[in-house]
Design brief:
Strand order of the largest sheet: 2-1-3-10-4-11
CATH class of the largest domain: Alpha Beta
Low-confidence stretches: 21-28
Strand content: 15-25%
Number of domains: 2
Structural class: alpha/beta
Shape: globular
Largest sheet: 6 strands, mixed
Distance between the termini: 20 Å
CATH superfamily of the largest domain: Periplasmic binding protein-like II
Number of helices: 13
Helix content: 40-55%
Mean pLDDT: 92
Radius of gyration: 20 Å
CATH architecture of the largest domain: 3-Layer(aba) Sandwich
Order of helices and strands: HEHEHEHEEEHEHEHEHEHHHHEH
């Protein structure tokens, strides 16, 4: 990460100087409007920091919209009414394969999901035989991971009962004691553990994945996508935003208390809960070759079970920024 940190700072600083010269320095008043839409996820914090700090205001008028409505975000970026979205890596691949021209700017979230159990501790997936497992969406990422891990542990779907309830209703259903287990992302994991005295954090989904993927716990969950129109028309601005994202991400990783404070402010979750959530979340930018290898490995596993999750094919080279 030290190399990435240095590179991001150098790139950002160089581009800022070039843009300052190009646009007439600090006195320049015309700015480029940039609209970014994101769900309320921890990966949004570096972008929100860019927006709030105002340090790019001389060149960019950045507006970050927080909304859980992925479908609207997809519709808006397809019509070039917004420029960037944060969404699931598989979602970006799917819309790309369906003809929406987006590019994967980075993968940033690699650990976020855990299995909670009600009133008992599961030491392995074997302990879930005969139990109910709540998942947010049939055919979604958590459904894929649950089925992938059950299958690789030799457990048939007939030996468990999968129940589908959208988040956060699924978490409420779990906390009421009506189901045996649930796979949740952070910070809902920490929220549920704080609200439910009978809940156990039983399995780390990333560690379970690693058992069947060369010991590597990183799963490419969330990324930033940029519209091709914006990227091709504004390569300098795209690089600045990418570089500042890495810089701010490194700041939050170095200052987890600040990350918890800001996440609490933006997402209306108590700071102590956010502090715990951050200890179970891996948000990082890895070198491009590593990131792409891990992403392709994830996509190939999806293709075998739920090909429609990524639009039926592996994305081609043009998918990657």
């Amino acid at each position: 990460m030290k190399l990435l940190k240095a590179q991001s700072i150098i790139i950002t600083f160089t581009l800022l100087i070039l843009l300052s010269i190009t646009f007439g320095g600090v006195g320049h008043t015309e700015t480029k409007k940039v609209v970014i839409q994101t769900p309320p996820v921890l990966a949004a914090l570096p972008l929100l920091k860019i927006d709030e700090s105002g340090e790019l205001d001389n060149f960019l008028d950045i507006e970050v919209k927080i909304s859980p409505d992925h479908q609207r975000a997809i519709s808006l970026i397809a019509k070039n009414e917004i420029d960037f979205i944060i969404t699931g890596v598989n979602v970006g691949a799917k819309i790309y394969n369906k003809g929406i021209n987006v590019k994967l700017l980075n993968v940033n979230t690699w650990a976020v999901d855990y299995l909670l159990t009600n009133g008992f501790k599961a030491e392995s997936f074997e302990d879930l035989k005969g139990k109910t497992i709540s998942l947010p969406l049939k055919g979604g990422p958590l459904d894929f991971l649950a089925r992938y891990l059950l299958e690789n542990n030799g457990i048939s779907e007939k030996e468990v009962k999968l129940i589908y309830r959208p988040l956060p209703n699924g978490a409420k259903y779990f906390n009421s004691g009506q189901i045996d287990s649930i796979i949740l992302p952070e910070p809902l994991v920490s929220v549920s553990l704080a609200q439910n005295d009978n809940a156990y954090l039983s399995l780390d989904i990333q560690k379970e994945w690693a058992k069947f993927n060369d010991g590597d716990q990183r799963i490419p969950f969330v990324g930033i996508f940029v519209s091709e129109q914006f990227a091709s028309g504004n390569p300098g601005f795209t690089e600045i935003i990418a570089g500042k994202y890495i810089e701010n991400l490194n700041y939050y990783n170095d200052n987890p208390n600040e990350a918890a404070k800001d996440a609490s402010k933006y997402f209306n979750i108590p700071e102590p809960i956010m502090e715990k959530a951050l200890t179970r979340t891996n948000i990082n930018i890895y070198p491009e070759d590593i990131s792409r290898k891990l992403t392709n490995n994830y996509f190939e596993a999806i293709l075998e079970m739920y090909p429609e999750m990524i639009g039926g094919n592996l994305p081609d080279e043009e998918f990657y920024y």
